[in-house]
Amino acid sequence: MELVFLGTGSNNPSPHRGASSLALRVSGTSNIYLFDCGEGTQIQIQRSAIRASRITKIFITHLHGDHIFGLPGLLCTLSSSPSMSSLILYGPLGLREFIETTLRLSCSHLSFNCEFVEIIPNSYDGIDETFIKTTIEKQEKNERCRIVNIHEDGSYHLISNEDNCSVYAVSIKHRVPTYGFIIVENDLPGKFDIKKLQESGIKPGPFCSRLKLGETVTLDDGRILSPTDYVGPSRPGRRLVILGDCSDASNVIPFAQQCDVLVHECTHDDSLHEKAIDFGHSTPSIATLLAERCDAKCLLLNHFSQRYKSKTTIESNTIENKENLNKKHKREDDNDDEEDEDDDDVTVDLLLEQAKQRTSRPVFIADDFFTYTIPLPK
Ligand SMILES: [Zn+2]
Ligand SMILES: [Zn+2]
């Protein structure tokens, strides 16, 4: 299992940081799950080692523009791929309407089968009940869309035992209905004890793979090998927690205990705590507190305000035309968050330092194209 961060900026894409998107290579298959699809995601995919036609499922955390404005374009591009046969999109109520309206008004048609699973928020999300009711009424007439009601505890079991994993959606606190996704890998087979086999005077051969799968094997010389003698107990699969924008994701705690990786947004640094909360966002303190409460094995921070440059950007800015880049960064129209002032001296290192002051767990800054392989359990 491998995470590839395609876009890690909040609010808007910029020359140095793409809008939100994250790809997961699912273990044991060639399938890719995509989490959010901000503007420019398809270009980021082309710049990465990810093959777009391998995407089988897209999960949308919430409907703010910096998380969905790349979707119509990506779907149209995928439409020209002969290997695309179907795609399922999971996300909040309204996702299907956004896609279908955009495709209809732009006279675009998809060549593959595109299905939707929309999550109906509950009172936790504080959404207007009339909006929910009218949208559900519309949905019932649509065969390509399944709607699911989030439970009282703010969770929903979206996928069971597909691609060797299950996926849960959990409500988290932002300014609009927003979900975190928990990916739980199926249990893994136990470790094969090849040393014990050799100590029994048996030469390893093709029969080992059958033994690993739990089969009893009879050798040519008549000896019978039982898997329980050479294969250890099965190991719990890996658990990944991928959060959307949030100022409070404590709802995920029961589902995220001892997760192998927690991907948490970190839009602002700790000195801007109030601003972060006002806009439904997080700081290093908020992210590390959740990592502690979940006993997470690793914390990956993303969704940075464009104020926080990566070090490589600072270096390239000094070589390239810095003034030009700064002019380009100043964008006024805002689909999600507040406009940030540009400050060339601030880098994501500030966020990392603040996080490391609050936790001794491994913490990483996920810049664009940062790749993290989730280690197998020991
Ligand atoms: Zn955002
Ligand atoms: Zn947002």
Summarize this structure briefly.
With 378 residues, the protein is an alpha/beta fold. Helix content is 27%, strand content 24%. α10 packs across α13 (349-358).
State the helix count: 13
The third-level CATH topology of the largest domain is Metallo-beta-lactamase, Chain A
Which sequence of SSEs, written as H and E, runs from N to C? EEEHEHHEHEHEEEEHHEEHEEHHEHHHEE
CATH-defined superfamily of the largest domain: Ribonuclease Z/Hydroxyacylglutathione hydrolase-like
CATH class of the largest domain: Alpha Beta
Distance between the termini: 15 Å
The rough form would be described as globular
**Uncertain stretches of 5 or more adjacent residues:** none
What is the mean pLDDT? Answer: 88
The total tally of domains equals: 2
Secondary structural class: alpha/beta
Number of strands: 17
- C-alpha-based Rg, rounded: 23 Å
Strands of the biggest beta sheet: in what spatial order?
A: 7-6-5-4-3-2-1-17
Ions, cofactors and other ligands present here are: zinc ion
GO molecular function, one term: 3'-tRNA processing endoribonuclease activity
Region (Disordered): 315-345
Keywords: Endonuclease, Hydrolase, Metal-binding, Nuclease, tRNA processing, Zinc
Subunit structure: Homodimer.
